[in-house]
Amino acid sequence: GNPFLFEHKFYGPQFMQSGGETILAAPGKLLDISVPTLNLLYKFLLPAITFLLLYGLIFRLTASSAWSIAGALMYLVGSQWLYANNLSHLLRGDAGFFDGFVYNRPVHPQFDGMLTFLYFNILLSALKSQKIRWFVVLGLLLGLSFYTYFYSFTFFLALNFVFAFLWFFTGKRIQMWHMI
After folding, report:
1. pLDDT for 51-81, tens place per residue?
2. Residue 57: other Cβ atoms inside 10 A
3. Distance CA 109, CA 46 (A)
4. What are 83-101's pLDDT values in tens digits?
5. Are 117 and 50 in contact (CB under 8 A)?
6. Residue 40 DSSP SS3
7. In angstroms, rounded to a whole number, what is the distance separating the alpha carbons of residues 145 and 87?
8. CA 145 – CA 158 distance, rounded (Å)
9. Nearest to 71 by CA among 52, 45, 97, 46
10. Nearest to residue 148, comparing CAs of 101, 105, 113?
């Protein structure tokens, strides 16, 4: 059963959902879109945005559109394409083929994946141009990560620490102070 309902059956659940669910539910509430329609929209839209963010990140690193497409597809579908029986299900158009994909879950990792790859893209922009505005955007995304998913901010903080550490020892102390 549900551990929250079991432990707090007399007083109601004592937990609060993360901000990712609230952010994803807001367009449905504001635009009066039903939950199944919103779910269908997010099952297409969120992986598509994640694909574009990941494509842009890999393209900026490799300057190859073929590697960017391959990398983004491999990340989104994982090892599902590597098995012959899965490929035959895809070619036959079986609806159940897409149920096993990780990115069919609308809140985590779809929303968090978008936030993560947006953070990586902005971090790469901060590395290349070293303008203060990119560090401000990184700070805003770090603050949003506290709200959206409980564990995503620890990854961003660790990544910030690694880059600040590298900048400190390579003599780029101005960038280090911007990151901190």
Report:
1. 999 999 999 999 999 999 988 888 887 766 6
2. 19
3. 10
4. 666 667 767 767 666 565 6
5. yes
6. helix
7. 36
8. 13
9. 52
10. 113
